[in-house]
């Protein structure tokens, strides 16, 4: 893969992380992330209006910190990449407006990046390589998709969710267990000392290999919580994590066999989950096929991954102009 060489500024503000990164090629010189998790915790989820305002407040300090960390000045920059789709429209607009302003005033090439393409590129940070074609399991708060990646930018969705995303299943389950938002990491921590066999929960739609589905699990979790006054939180968290991980692993491996794919990457916020990483790693090892997942700092939303996708796109000749707009929904 060839990368855009000059210092590239990358911006991510699609949801509740304000992030700015600086890249040289695929080397990440800085990746500053300011999370709004604490702000949204009291509402148990992201409040779009509050998110936009928080991005505005956080942006300049995050930008300054990224430039200082990378020891790069605005004048050194050679390009700008920004997440412009999909996401919360007000939140996206903050990043896109800053990106266009900088591109105009510094006369730099600009590229809008699809957030999921950013996640797909997160495995390439700092010189890492991975073979094509491959299957990519994208699991985040808003997405659960198994994608065939034939080459960079050439993708086809093979399996997708009928209802909730895997991250949502973690977050909603966490809420039922009284764990704060965002719940994925809290469930993982509680599950560490729990017994996953204590409360058998359904592995989603076990015979439907064309879809993921997590809404039945959410209902089963609700019933479990309501009907078990002395519920053991660690055991319930372990049981929840087991049900989500097994559904993802079983359907992914089956689809890879069906579609004759021989390399797997795991990306998106839920790729930070240790149980999921190690289950997929060992399934791939059994089949002797390559497996990749991002380092932890590149799993949940961050600008470095947007920079990687933007870097590849700019080097491949893609450009956007100052009419670049944000979009709340967008096919990959
Ligand atoms: O990619 P991401 O940061 O934002 C979206 O694009 O949605 O993903 C956030 C999701 C949340 O649902 C969060 O609970 C989940 O990733 N997550 C985890 C872990 N860390 C973050 N889920 C399970 N285990 C984790 N360690
Ligand atoms: Zn994301």
Q: Any chance you could write out the topology, listing elements then pairs?
A:
Layout: E1 8-12, E2 17-24, E3 27-35, H1 37-41, H2 48-70, E4 79-85, H3 89-106, E5 110-114, H4 115-121, E6 134-139, E7 144-151, E8 154-161, H5 166-176, H6 183-191, E9 211-212, H7 215-227, H8 233-258, E10 264-267, H9 274-286, E11 291-292, H10 303-315
Parallel strand pairs: 1-4, 4-5, 6-10, 8-9, 10-11
Antiparallel strand pairs: 1-2, 2-3, 6-7, 7-8
Helix pairs in contact: 2-3, 4-10, 5-6, 5-7, 5-8, 6-8, 8-9
The structure holds 5'-O-[(R)-(carboxyoxy)(hydroxy)phosphoryl]adenosine and zinc ion.
Residues 115, 119, 140, 268-269, 301 line the site of zinc ion.
Give a brief rundown of this model.
By secondary structure, this protein is α/β, with parallel strands linked by helices. Helix content is 42%, strand content 19%.
């Amino acid at each position: 893969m060839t990368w855009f060489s000059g210092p590239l500024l990358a911006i991510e503000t699609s949801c509740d992380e304000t992030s700015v990164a600086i890249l040289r090629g695929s080397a990440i010189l800085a990746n500053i992330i300011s999370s709004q998790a604490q702000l949204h915790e009291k509402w148990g989820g992201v409040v779009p209006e509050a998110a936009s305002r928080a991005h505005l407040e956080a942006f300049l300090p995050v930008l300054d910190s990224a430039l200082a960390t990378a020891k790069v000045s605005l004048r050194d920059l050679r390009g700008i990449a920004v997440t412009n789709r999909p996401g919360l429209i007000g939140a996206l607009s903050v990043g896109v407006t800053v990106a266009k302003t900088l591109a105009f005033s510094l006369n730099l090439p600009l590229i809008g990046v699809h957030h999921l393409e950013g996640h797909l590129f997160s495995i390439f940070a700092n010189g890492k390589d991975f073979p094509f074609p491959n299957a990519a399991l994208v699991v985040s708060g808003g997405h659960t998709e198994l994608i065939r990646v034939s080459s960079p930018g050439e993708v086809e969705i093979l399996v997708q969710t009928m209802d909730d995303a895997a991250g949502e299943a973690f977050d909603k389950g966490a809420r039922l267990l009284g764990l704060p938002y965002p719940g994925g990491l809290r469930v993982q921590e509680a599950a560490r000392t729990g017994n996953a066999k204590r409360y058998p929960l359904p592995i989603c739609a076990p015979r439907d290999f064309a879809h993921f589905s997590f809404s039945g699990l959410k209902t089963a979790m609700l019933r479990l919580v309501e009907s078990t006054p002395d519920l053991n939180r660690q055991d319930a968290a372990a049981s929840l994590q087991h049900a989500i991980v097994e559904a993802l692993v079983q359907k992914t491996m089956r689809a890879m066999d069906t579609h004759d794919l021989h390399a797997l990457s795991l990306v998106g916020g839920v790729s930070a989950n240790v149980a999921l990483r190690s289950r997929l790693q060992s399934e791939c090892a059994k089949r002797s096929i390559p497996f990749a997942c991002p380092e932890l700092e590149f799993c949940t939303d961050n600008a470095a991954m947007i920079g990687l996708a933007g870097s590849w796109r700019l080097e491949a000749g893609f450009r956007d102009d100052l009419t670049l707009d944000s979009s709340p929904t967008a096919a990959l």
